[in-house]
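Input chain follows. Return structure tokens only.
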Amino acid sequence: LQIDFTDNGASPLLCGDINSETGDDKINALDISVLLNNWSSGSIKADLNRDEEVNALDISNLLANFNLLGE
């Protein structure tokens, strides 16, 4: 799953790139760490599917993009 929030598509935001405010265009262990540190919370940053809880659905979204790089 790749979600592009840009107008021109030049720099897609990858679902799961949550380890910094601006993202680093990589889905890796740093992103998993952020997600796990927010497990069972309502963290907006780590709640990738926006169901108001960080849970298995969110890690599933992150893992679907694991090791992918942005453009």
